[in-house]
Amino acid sequence: MTGVRGKHTGMWPNRREALWLTAASVLFGGLDLLVHGMSPPTTGWTGPHAALLLHLSVDVSLLFLARFPVQVASWALAVAVLMLVSEEFAPGLFTPVQPAAHTALPFATPAITTNLVRLTDRRRAFLLIGLLAVLGTRPWHPSWDITPLGVVNTVLPALAALYLHARRELLNSLRERAERAEREQLLLAEHARAQERRRLAEEMHDVVTHHLTLMVLHAGALGTGSADPTVRTAAEDIRQTGTRALTELRDLVGVLRNAGETRTAQPSEPTAPDPRTLVDEARAVGETISYVVDGDPGQVSPTVRRTAHRVVQESLTNGRKHAPGAEVTVALSYRPDGVTVRVANGAADRPADGALAGSGSGVGLLGLAHRVELIGGTLRSGPRPGGGYQVDAILPAHVPTREDAG
């Protein structure tokens, strides 16, 4: 990696960086003041506080480390050179003759080497760290007092920073691979669902439509050929019911075939059933139902209105099974952007009929939720506080269907 990392326009990239560098500057400044107080003063023409001023200048430069890491490291290197020159050729000029802490580098060197690896390109970072390591370890004059401390102040912080950076990159890479694998799994699952929907649509079209069509034709022939008015009425009812079932099936096949595809055109659709008929039927058998409609149903497509009809139908059926005698509220709101349906019932006022309650398959709401999902809507259902049950559906105004004529 040769590109410079961590470029930014301000002195600090963020508040956390500013706090960390300020704390480091104060910490190392305090350490330098403590060592200076325990050491004798410098004795050269630079004055008694020359060593302290050099070290404090490096501590203050830490505030600019995030913006100018190479310059700060270069200044620390220059201070180390002055300390070396003073010790070798002019004792007492920039370092005390007998310092309290024997070090060949400024105390802030570990912070500088760590950030060099993090903030600059590797070539310059390694060059500067290498020079600091040479000055800190003094290989031409190794000593147990200086050499190990030089390694600890330069090489070890750089290696730790390299390790943490490599570990962070590895974790990021693993996270990206996991997310990519998850996205691929979702795509494969969606493709499998689409394939299954198309298969179901073909089977429904080829098998169920065929038998329903035969049923409608036989009912029509029975009504035409029979002289009994009762038979003719029953045959006509069967024929109309079969015709409505064909319409519903045709619509469902179109949704299954085109679920997830973009709608290219809104076809002409047959008239949708009115949920009011369900309410009237329930009232006719003695149920107490409050029915509220807001807006114009014509704002949404017949496909959506049929789905709303199914939501009301399934909800009333479940209420009839599990909460007999409960008051029911049916509310529909038609808007240009969709439909909201709410069916809520209170607590039952008498025990439910066991045979009736157990007559269903137990997956009515699940199938209803899937039907709502197919047209791009959402369905929520659950118990109400204080007793009863509530079903809420939010449906779009139009659905992306392209229904086949045959």
Largest sheet: 5 strands, mixed
Total number of domains: 3
* Spatial arrangement of strands, main beta sheet: 1-2-3-5-4
**Molecular shape:** rod-shaped
Alpha carbon gap, first and last residue: 63 Å
- Name the average pLDDT: 80
Say what oligomer this is.
single chain
Helix content: 55-70%
Q: Give the helix/strand class.
A: alpha+beta
Order of helices and strands: HHHHHHHHEHEEHHEE
Question: Stretches where pLDDT falls below 50 for ≥5 residues?
Answer: 1-7, 260-269, 402-406
Number of helices: 11
Question: What's the β-strand tally?
Answer: 5
**Radius of gyration over all CA atoms, rounded:** 41 Å
What percentage of amino acids are in beta strands? 5-15%
Report on this structure.
With 406 residues, the chain is α+β, with helices and mostly antiparallel strands. The protein has a five-stranded mixed sheet with strand order 1-2-3-5-4, covered by helices on one side. Helix 4 packs parallel to helix 6. It is built from eleven helices and five strands, in the order H-H-H-H-H-H-H-H-E-H-E-E-H-H-E-E. It is 59% helix and 9% strand. The model is unreliable at 1-7, 260-269 and 402-406 (pLDDT under 50).
